[in-house]
Fold this protein.
Amino acid sequence: MSTMIKYEEKELKVVGTRPRRPDGVDKVTGRARYGADYKLPGQLIGKVLRSPHAHARIKSIDTSEAEALPGVKAVVTRDDFPDLAVEYAAAGELTINFHDVTRNMMAREKVLYDGHPVAAVAATCESIARAALKLIKVEYEVLPHVIDVVAAMQPDAPLLHEEQYTEGVKPRPEKPSNIAKRLEFKLGDVEAGFLLADVIIEREFNTKPVHQGYIEPQACLASYTEDGQAELWTSTQGHFVFRAQCAKLLQMDISKIRVTPTEIGGGFGGKNNIYNEPLAIALSRKSHRPVKMVMTREEVFRATGPTSGGNVKVKLGATKDGKITAAQAELSFQAGAYPGSSVSPASMCAFTRYDLQNVLVVGFDVTCNRPKVAAYRAPGAPIAVFGVESVIDEMAKKLGLDPIAFRLKNAARAGTQTYYGVKFGPIGYVETLEAARAHPHYSVPLGPNQGRGIATGFWFNIGNETSATLNINEDGTVTLMLGTIDVAGGSRAAMAMMVAEELGIAFDRVRPHIGDTSSLGFNFITAGSRGTFSSGMASVVAAREAIAKLRARVARIREVPLEAVVWQDGQARPAEASPHQFVPMSLADIAKVAGKTGGTIAGHAEINAQGAGPGFGTHIVDVEVDRQTGAIKILRYTVVQDVGRAIHPAYVEGQLQGGAVQGIGWALNEEYVYGADGILANPGFLDYRIPVASDLPFIDTVIVEVPNPNHPYGVRGCGEVPIIAPLAAIANAVENATGIRFCELPMSPPRVLHAMDKAAGKE
Amino acid sequence: MSEMRYEAPTTLAAAVVLLSETMGSARVLAGGTDLLIQMRAGRISPELLIDIKGIPEMTSILVENGCYRVGAAVTGMQLIEHEAFAKEWPGVIDGVKLIGSIQVKGRATLGGNLCNASPAADSVPALIAAGAVVSIIGPAGGREVAVETIATGPGRTSLARGEIVTSILLPRRTPYCGDAYLRFTPRTEMDIAVVGAGVSLTLDEQGFCRQARVALGAVAERALLVPEAAAALIGTRVDAAALERLAAAARAASRPIDDKRATREFRLKIAGVMAHRAAEIALERARRRN
Ligand SMILES: Cc1cc2nc3c(=O)[nH]c(=O)nc-3n(C[C@H](O)[C@H](O)[C@H](O)COP(=O)(O)OP(=O)(O)OC[C@H]3O[C@@H](n4cnc5c(N)ncnc54)[C@H](O)[C@@H]3O)c2cc1C
């Protein structure tokens, strides 16, 4: 059974306003407690020994000297964890396999990337823990490695997994391969479609892996007791999923692990996966002391995240009058050390903005000697869309059409059959294109060396299992317990606003909290832009259940039939024209007597939210290119997005701006730099360049609201769409400024200067 | 576990004694914005830290015979907020302003930037272009050297064991002189120079360049004084042709490497561009100053 609540148009008092977020004061005064802020008496510090090789077989691990060091209380290696069989589970948008999760947490047979954990130590202080790491002797047999995705796909490439045979090809291949999987999405007949085309464009693109770049490194604190119970505090996007994964990896009952999510300093999909958590619990179990583990930035870069780098081939055919006749793409994604990249959602997003008859998308999931990739905001979509929207731009230019007009001519609308399965209901893609075209930004004149680019993005958005509890306190205020994480977007405020709207009370009468895993039923990870959609729906369900109980209570107190009591403006009132009139009771009135009239009133929701509404966005960007240095300056940026309904417009704008900024970093400067030795050369923010504030203009936003019919307040979710378009929008703008099309990211100054000099015949 | 000792002497003499008498590894600690990071990364583990921020001579900005003497432990923000100094040496301020963030500059010192001996240090090319002279004290007494002789390679200096840089002396300013420093970085802030260029020049009443010094950062193992680039300007009105010759000389003097931050090819091109643009700014400042 799944839950879907229909959208109702109604007069709104709270939804759509901009109150101050409940977590705001704590955050600006430094009171907010992030992962590293938790401490327990007697705690030890845990540290991880990591592989110095990109690829090697572990011949032996000797921890005896480390264990003998005074102050060291426990050391764990692969021998402290059970091997696990192949078993798949969902974790955000990506699927995990426990056989690999346990190996990524702690290497077993081989190390597969620079930074792969091989042992962990708990000691009375950090310097002792670090000294102990140096005393662990690991004997490696170094193997040849492969970093690049195209190289990893070659038949003679160094092989990561000897038992990995490409899935999805028939007959089953005879030789193992780094290609873990081939997948295909198909609609109509592309060959026939290309025959109808007047113009065909074929291009190949390459992107580099990029990190989620959250400011807070992973941090956790675990305490394991002698009766086999574990408590864990961690910075996570999904405490229930972390609990399940720790239980599996440590072979414990789920009920014996309690996870409290801390405030989170950014995640963007990078905190969907466990890293140190099971190690901290295992070290605590072994040492009988609480163990705290905080990653350094270098560890974050070497061993967590990133998203895939990809090779993307696009072929597009269109008629002279601008109708797309066929669209084809081949996506090869780096999965990192273990299979499971975002190539599948990327494939589904590649062309979905268009109403097409003939589509073929083939995806390859490829293992290579890098950290196992994690989800990153609209996982995979920006990579595929960089290629597709670049080709769309080129096609519009070739056909002599305005880029927005060309897109409108082919735009997906309600009723469009997508090539991945669903048929769209009401969507707002056309509305975003029209709003972009009408925006002053689209027509303001450009100066020399300046260019303008357009690109668009689509993301599914998801729902899934969600629980919430709403307690009416003795004074009539409300405590709202949520199970999705406020991934720094202000979603707590949005949920409290919907509850205030339902109950007819002021926003600040509702105090939202994120509960630990023992306070609520299961909640799926906060991913897929599901937070405000699904927790909002759960909050509304809980509020409506509470209202039903409130009405029943008043009916009993006032001795009238239930139908005679309606809930309006925060009060139980006699229904209009009812023969049973009575003195209304406010929420506070009822709360005051609740204890003596049957007990406290609460509302609950344990739902599987369905009916998430797809999101679309159109971006406009102006750039200026320095012809002498290759530096690209973002002059102006506008995000236009259909969000269904903005519960708290300021926080929605923040999402649109943040997504655009991360996309700008991806387009311009972010990249992992590996040496020939397979070692990451830039594991820090100095040389891994995310944009700083002064690199950016104010990001303008236009919120388009085409309500999602399957949410009580029309919410679609908005966090992921805005990172999809920037890569192509900027590349299109640079092409507009220089006449050079960049098919390779990042468009960093050396690359841009090189290309310009080459085009000018200077090289 | 080895223990680390921390001392904060209040006189130069005491600091020199501490530094030269210690058997193990000792380090001068100024703002610590380089040192602490190197310690955290495990690259160095000194047994003794000698904090020099409590020594008055090292933390003051003085005027001596019309020349500025800047203590080696003067922080970036102290210098930036010194309005009279900033007016005299806008190019040095250009360099100092680029060091990290306001928070970093609140700690970072001129002496630290110099003695850390990074080829990309931002204040150093500007100081070299300015013709700054460094005062050093050590077990064998004091000496004075040109600023460009301090760094000898990445992380290496010409300082002898036990020597401390105490202050930096800038020459007297004359009419029609101007200086500038410019660096190229992919980001606008919180980045490290891919190439830096400092230019200081003096014009005569007719607008001819009489004196010039040009220095480049991040194009060799240390910041370079490039007399050929300066020669391209001297005697000219610093016109387009002279600036082109300056850029060519800057490129010719550069001997960069390929690394994670940029290619050799890119650095060579940018060295010319930065020198050219810095000279234009210095020229503009010189014309405005009489
Ligand atoms: C976030 C960040 C950003 C940065 N950005 C930049 C930048 O953009 N440009 C740039 O140039 N630098 C940058 N730096 C580096 C650093 O801030 C500067 O080099 C700074 O000037 C160092 O000064 P300090 O006083 O902190 O030196 P310390 O760290 O205290 O010392 C540096 C070295 O010099 C030695 N030393 C210090 N003073 C003396 C002395 N008087 N005599 C002899 N030896 C001495 C020390 O022993 C040590 O080896 C950045 C640093 C950080 C953390």
Observations:
- Chain B touches chain A through 20 residues (CB under 8 Å).
- The two ends of chain B are 61 Å apart (CA to CA).
